[in-house]
């Protein structure tokens, strides 16, 4: 199974709070690979990778159900038989992610312009 780590180490590796990691478990996005004899959650590197993938989806505006569906498409072992055309859905998700990235770039351009205005006033 590889290295197993407790939730605190996972939080440290990902920058997520313990509460957020537990929430993602509660909603079924990331389930610990194992539990210790004492009942502690134990995660593996693939679990951490999955959390990092979720972290990438969040700023793009993906909703929980979309994250769940996309994770099922991207990880064949989680494949959801209810997804009629995974390739078409992946194309839709890709287009949505690209649109969200462009919106974020536009916001960043505006923020950079504003920062430049502020810097100019300091000079």
Automatic annotation (TrEMBL):
Q: Can you give the residue ranges of the HTH merR-type domain?
A: 4-73
InterPro entries tied to this protein: DNA-bd_dom_put_sf, MerR-type_HTH_dom, MerR_fam
Q: Which one Pfam family would you cite for this protein? A: MerR_1
Q: Which UniProt keywords apply?
A: DNA-binding
Q: Does the keyword DNA-binding apply?
A: yes
Instruction: Name the PROSITE patterns on file.
Output: HTH_MERR_1 (PS00552), HTH_MERR_2 (PS50937)
Q: What PANTHER family does the record tag this protein with?
A: HTH MERR-TYPE DOMAIN-CONTAINING PROTEIN, REDOX-CYCLING DRUG-SENSING TRANSCRIPTIONAL ACTIVATOR SOXR
Its recorded name reads MerR family transcriptional regulator
What is the organism field in this record? Saccharopolyspora gregorii
The organism that produces this protein has a lineage beginning with:
Bacteria, Bacillati, Actinomycetota, Actinomycetes, Pseudonocardiales
